[in-house]
C-alpha cells in the first residue's frame, strides 16, 4: 500500500482512538516460554490419515527442553469436554503448559452469511481453548476478494473481530491476529487494522516467517509491542523470494529487545524430517532464550 492509501485506511478505521490496541505493558522482567507447535508435525497429525495422535505429540514434546505445546485445532480428534479435559491432563502430567490454540478464520468475505458463519466457528473454538487452558486463540483476517474496497473490507474484518472478542473476554482468553497473507501481510497494514479493534481481549500473533517484505526482521520488530503470542519459523522470505535460513539469534534478540513476554512456539515448516530437525532447533532456541 502507498502511504496515502495507508493513511486513508487508518482514518477510516479510527486509528489513534483510545479504544484501539496499544503497545502491551510488559513486566519489568519479561519471560519467554519455549513451546512447540503441533503444526510442525502436520503430516503425521493429519486426521485424514494420522500416524501420530495429539497425545503422542505431547509425549514427544516432553522429551525436549520445552515449557509448553501449541495445540493446533486441526489435529484434535474430538472437541467434547471429556476429550479436552483428557488432553489438558495429559499435557499437565508431562509438565507442559498449553501455550495457545491456532484456528482458521476468514473475515474478509463480502457475503454476510458466510462471514457470520466464520464468526460462529471462532466463537465455538474460544471456550474449547479455555477448557484446555490455552491463553490465546490464533485467528486470520483473510485476503480481500476481487473488486472489493479496502476500507469496506477492513471495516468488516474489524467488526467480526470485535464480536469474537466479546466471547474471548468472557472466557478469559485473547484473540491473536496473525500477520498472514492478504490484508495483514505487512506490519503497517496489520497494525492499522489492529488499532481499530475495540477490545483488550485482543493482540497479535507474531509469525516470524510470514512477512514477504523487503526486511522481514524490521517488520517483526514493529509488531512485537502488540504481540501476545509468537510462532517462530526457521525460514524467512525477504522480498517474497525463496526461503532462506532464518537468523534465529537475531529473531530472539528482536523479541528480547521488544520486551516480549509470552510463548514462542517453534513452527517447523522447512524441508526435512521434523522428528530429526525439530529437536535441533529446540535445543538452539532454548540456549538463545536462556542467555
Describe the structure in your own words:
The chain has one domain (about 40-275): TIM Barrel, CATH 3.20.20.150. Helix content is about 40%, strand content about 15%. The protein has ten helices and ten strands. The chain has helices at about 5-15, 40-45, 55-60, 80-95, 110-130, 150-170, 185-195, 215-225, 250-255, 275-290; strands at about 30-35, 70, 95-100, 135-140, 175-180, 200-205, 225-230, 235, 245, 260-265. Strand 2 (about 70), helix 4 (about 80-95) and strand 3 (about 95-100) form a beta-alpha-beta unit.
Alpha-carbon Rg, integer: 18 Å
Strand order of the largest sheet: 1-2-3-4-5-6-7-10
Structural class: alpha/beta
CATH top level is Alpha Beta
For the record, give the distance between the C-alpha atoms at the N and C termini, rounded to a whole number: 38 Å
Poorly predicted regions? 1-19
In brief:
The protein has 291 residues and is α/β, with parallel strands linked by helices. It contains 10 helices and 10 strands. It is globular.
Summarize the helices and strands and which ones pair or pack.
Elements: H1 3-13, E1 32-37, H2 42-45, H3 54-61, E2 68-70, H4 81-93, E3 97-102, H5 112-132, E4 136-139, H6 150-171, E5 174-178, H7 187-194, E6 202-207, H8 216-223, E7 227-232, E8 235-236, E9 244-245, H9 248-257, E10 262-266, H10 274-290
Parallel strand pairs: 1-2, 1-10, 2-3, 3-4, 4-5, 5-6, 6-7, 7-10
Antiparallel strand pairs: 8-9
